[in-house]
């Protein structure tokens, strides 16, 4: 692993900046009435800093950790404040930093109580702190702390500032699921030194005193892999540990759901790549068949559940279960081409799902209902809203020329080359996806207009929020080559490591 040290703590500054502003707003009532403006300005500065890091990034070394810094934190346990950014973490940080100001702008006029609005915006900044930290940390224990601690702002954003009647129950359900996953991960982290002390033969390779490698039974590696995979599967979310998602997305504000599904759930797939696949490639290969079966269940279950949903927010959340199934299948199928598709899909899905949740929020704000059947004929009344919703939906179902097409094509083609049966079964969801997007569009935007409801089209602020997302959908659809090429180089490195380990294991 190549580590390029930085003489200035740029990454620490990017990590800490939103936290400092967010805590200042929460701690000082005098700032809360202007909290929305302060948070929006702070998120803009954060985005500018992230873009500066992206410009300075050396893309010829995509797998290296650049702008790295290491500071001793808890030396007794080998824990350090170690940061660094490779191309995958850079892409995810850019996505997070770009979505936060859009979310803040989308929710800008939702609260008449300025203090409440300021506190909500502050919690968004605290959440951004954890998002950036988890993608740039190089220390496993710091990763775990951020993985667990992000539940604090999420609980407040859903349980206190959510809009659903069952928001507290949904927030508690999210916390319980994530805590269970985090505790399972913690068991894996703290058990490694114990297992290596008392059962060194349970790990695949143990370095002996003479420098040679001793081959073990791999049971320790499997145990460690499962502890991480379970935690990441809950976060992803995968079938059957996905049930928290629809409740949380329905109870949360659309802006919170945008960050939850668009960025935070990607921590699951990010962890599968960086931790499971990169650190434990042999076990990943050995257990890939079981994981692919679970991924296919997620793909089909999410598609059918979306098809049967009448609540627009639940429908959108179930589509994500299906899309995450595609990503997980691509990560473990054993194809560098499919793995690249999964990484690109993480970005493309983040863009399209953000637009869908925000558009759903604007629609529900006007119609006071998330029930699809309570609408009709809005294409004549709100043509901009209708057009943007259709474009975002088509991007999510991989229409050629929009953001979802390239990564989904890469995933299916790469999977077909390795496991044609998995690819053939997964293609069924593509047909279902067209139905679960076009059918709600037909019910909401075509037919007669409900006489008892009055609707206004998107205003300037709402159009400003959505325009960058629509532009990103088109750019990723027609000019995805730079992103594919850069992430492709990184995926080849990850896949090459897996091949080396497998070859070594076979000797």
Mean pLDDT: 87
What percentage of the residues does DSSP assign to strands (E)?
5-15%
Straight-line N-to-C gap: 24 Å
Q: What would the principal axes of the Cα set say about the shape?
A: globular
Q: Classify the helix fraction into a percent range.
A: over 70%
**How many independent structural domains?**
2
Given the structure, what is the number of helices?
22
Number of strands: 5
User: Low-confidence parts lasting 5 or more residues at pLDDT below 50?
Assistant: 206-214, 499-507
Radius of gyration: 22 Å
Largest sheet features: 3 strands, mixed
- Strand order in the largest sheet: 1-2-3
Sketch the topology as an H/E string, one letter per element.
EHHHEEHHHHHEEHHHHHHHHHHHHHH
Category from helices, strands and their pairing = mainly alpha
Short précis:
With 507 residues, this protein is mainly alpha-helical.
Key attributes of the depicted protein:
507 residues; single chain; three-stranded mixed beta sheet; 2 domains; 5 strands; two-stranded antiparallel sheet; 22 helices; mainly alpha
Give a description of the structure.
A hairpin with a 4-residue loop joins strand 2 and strand 3. Residues 206-214 and 499-507 have low confidence and may be disordered. Helix 4 packs antiparallel against helix 21 (460-478) and helix 16 (336-367) runs antiparallel to helix 18 (383-396). With 507 residues, the chain is mainly α. It is 73% helix and 5% strand. The radius of gyration is 22 Å and the shape is globular. A three-stranded mixed sheet has the order 1-2-3. The chain has a two-stranded antiparallel ribbon with strand order 4-5. The protein is built from 22 helices and five strands. The protein has helices at 10-27, 29-32, 35-56, 87-106, 114-136, 140-149, 151-160, 167-198, 219-235, 244-251, 254-264, 266-279, 281-286, 288-307, 312-332, 336-367, 378-381, 383-396, 405-418, 420-445, 460-478, 481-506, and strands spanning 3-5, 65-74, 79-85, 205-207, 213-215. The longest helix is centred in the middle third of the chain and has 32 residues, at 167-198. The chain folds into two domains: 1-138; 150-506, no CATH class.
């Amino acid at each position: 692993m190549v580590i390029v040290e930085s003489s200035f703590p740029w990454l620490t500054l990017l990590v800490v900046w939103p936290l400092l502003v967010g805590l200042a707003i929460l701690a000082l009532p005098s700032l809360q009435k202007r909290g929305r403006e302060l948070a929006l300005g702070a998120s803009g500065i954060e985005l500018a800093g992230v873009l500066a890091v992206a410009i300075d990034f050396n893309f010829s070394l995509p797998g290296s950790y650049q702008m790295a810094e290491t500071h001793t934190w808890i030396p007794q346990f080998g824990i350090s404040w170690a940061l660094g950014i490779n191309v995958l973490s850079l892409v995810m940080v850019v996505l997070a930093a770009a979505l936060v100001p859009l979310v803040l702008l989308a929710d800008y006029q939702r609260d008449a109580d300025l203090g409440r609005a300021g506190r909500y915006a502050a919690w968004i900044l605290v959440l951004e702190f954890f998002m950036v930290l988890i993608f740039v940390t190089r220390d496993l224990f710091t990763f775990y702390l951020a993985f667990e601690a992000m539940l604090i702002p999420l609980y407040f954003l859903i349980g206190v500032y959510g809009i659903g009647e069952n928001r507290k129950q949904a927030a508690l359900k999210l916390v319980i699921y994530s805590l269970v996953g985090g505790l399972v991960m913690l068991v894996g982290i703290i058990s490694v030194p114990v297992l290596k002390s008392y059962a060194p033969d349970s790990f695949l390779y143990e370095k002996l005193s003479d420098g040679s490698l001793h081959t073990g039974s791999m049971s320790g590696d499997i145990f460690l892999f499962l502890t991480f995979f379970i935690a990441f599967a809950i976060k992803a979310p995968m079938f059957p540990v996905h049930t928290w998602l629809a409740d949380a997305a329905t109870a949360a504000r659309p802006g919170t759901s945008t960050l939850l599904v668009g960025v935070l759930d990607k921590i699951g797939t990010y962890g599968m790549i960086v931790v499971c696949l990169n650190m434990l490639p042999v076990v990943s290969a050995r257990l890939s068949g079981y994981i692919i079966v679970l991924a296919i269940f997620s793909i089909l279950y999410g598609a059918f559940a979306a098809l049967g949903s009448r609540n627009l927010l639940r429908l959108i959340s179930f589509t994500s279960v299906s899309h995450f199934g595609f990503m997980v299948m691509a990560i473990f199928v054993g194809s560098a081409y499919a793995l690249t598709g999964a990484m690109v899909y993480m970005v493309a899905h983040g863009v399209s799902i953000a637009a869908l949740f925000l558009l759903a929020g604007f629609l529900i704000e006007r119609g006071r209902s998330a029930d699809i059947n309570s609408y009709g004929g809005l294409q004549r009344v709100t043509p901009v809203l209708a057009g943007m919703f259709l474009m975002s939906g088509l991007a999510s179902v991989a229409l050629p020329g929009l953001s979802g097409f390239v990564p989904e094509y890469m995933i299916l083609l790469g999977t077909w080359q390795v496991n044609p049966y998995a690819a053939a079964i997964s293609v069924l969801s593509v047909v279902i996806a067209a139905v679960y997007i076009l059918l709600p569009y037909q019910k909401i935007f075509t037919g007669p207009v409900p006489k008892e409801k009055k609707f206004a089209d998107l205003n300037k602020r709402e159009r400003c929020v959505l325009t960058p997302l629509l532009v990103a959908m088109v750019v990723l659809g027609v000019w995805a080559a730079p992103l594919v090429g850069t992430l492709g180089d990184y995926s080849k490195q990850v896949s090459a490591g897996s091949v080396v380990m497998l070859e070594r294991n076979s000797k």
